[in-house]
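Dear support,

I submitted the protein below through the web form. The confirmation email said the job was done, but the results page showed an empty box. After a refresh the structure appeared. I'm attaching both so you can tell me whether what I see now is the final result or a partial one.
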Amino acid sequence: MATSVAKTGRVVWPDSIQKEFDINEFNGRVGTRLLSETERVRVWEIRLAPGERIGFHRHVLDYFWTAVTPGRARSYAEDGTIVEAVYSAGETRHFVYGKGEYKIHDLKNVGDADLWFTTVEFLDSANAPLKIGNQSP
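What the results page shows now:
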């Protein structure tokens, strides 16, 4: 994954992005579709057409994602960081969160082809799973 990071602070975010962040900062819906859930894992799909995005959500569970397709995306994070990333098909990243740790971000497909990920969350992580609610547009 090639990335470009700008740490600009949330004050420069568009008002619509800031408002959505405030509404969804505890949203546990980390994908566009929940494919499977057991007592151990949640398996999510993220499929975004060019220009489409998944809104803000909070990661509290250990998880990994795999890019099914190559593509480009932009993500706003709670610390004001804006990340532009290029993904390769098959690329996988793992994340671990200690007690009380989390990450809040969104993801927008800024490429010219569909962007598709599979994400697996581990329910036996240091933090309790968040409620899976509907996210705001």
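Response: this is the final, complete result; the empty box was a page-load delay. The mean pLDDT is 92.
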